[in-house]
From TrEMBL:
PANTHER family to which the protein is assigned, alphabetical: TRNA-SPECIFIC ADENOSINE DEAMINASE 1
Domain of life where this protein originates: Eukaryota
EC number(s) stated in the UniProt entry for this protein: 3.5.4.34
Keyword Ribonucleoprotein: no
One Pfam family matching this protein: A_deamin
Keyword Metal-binding: yes
Assigned protein family: Belongs to the ADAT1 family.
Cofactor: 1D-myo-inositol hexakisphosphate
Organism, scientific name: Desmophyllum pertusum
GO terms of molecular function: metal ion binding; RNA binding; tRNA-specific adenosine-37 deaminase activity
Name of this chain's protein: tRNA-specific adenosine deaminase 1
């Protein structure tokens, strides 16, 4: 049942899906073509089974969270009201969206609605369904500790956001 694991073009498909998703969004907040650029990060859901546990002929791929940005706000610009994000890097924004997605999916599972989770009433816990996986896409190497390894050990995906 290995789907994406055996696909040598999987990384390119994920990158293409993320770029297409980004391009469908409105122009508000996007960089100006030929003058500006930004970083893009997304979380992609891969499903190899349908909601009934049957194997899909091809795995489905959906962007469930996306973020853009490359800034950190200094302490002097922070708000006491919590309305300004300190770290607005693309990966951080995508992670925040991903957490919201997971919380929503958990609510669906507890309400016995279609979800990526299965609610196990006897132990009062949810587990991820078989055949579900998530993948992080970034248009550039992350900054900080996420980039401390030598380049030859990383796969770098370049992306034009025009």
């Amino acid at each position: 049942m290995a789907c994406w694991q055996e696909d040598v073009h999987f990384a390119n498909k994920v990158a293409q899906l993320c770029c297409e998703h980004f391009n469908k969004l409105s122009k508000k907040g996007k960089p100006q073509a030929q003058h500006e650029w930004t970083l893009l990060a997304a979380i992609v859901l891969i499903q190899q089974q349908d909601n009934n546990g049957k194997c899909l002929p091809e795995c489905s791929m959906d962007v469930v969270a996306m973020g853009t940005g490359s800034k950190c706000i200094g302490r002097s610009k922070m708000s006491n009201k919590g309305i300004i994000l300190n770290d607005s890097h693309a990966e951080v924004i995508a992670r925040r969206g991903f957490l919201r997605y997971l919380y929503q999916q958990l609510q669906y599972a507890y309400k016995e609605e279609p979800s990526i989770f299965v609610y196990q009433e006897d132990i009062n816990l949810c587990t991820l369904k078989n055949g579900v996986s998530f993948h992080l896409y970034t248009s550039h190497t992350p900054c900080g500790d996420a980039s401390i390894f030598p380049r030859q050990r990383k796969m770098i995906l370049w992306l034009s956001l025009n």
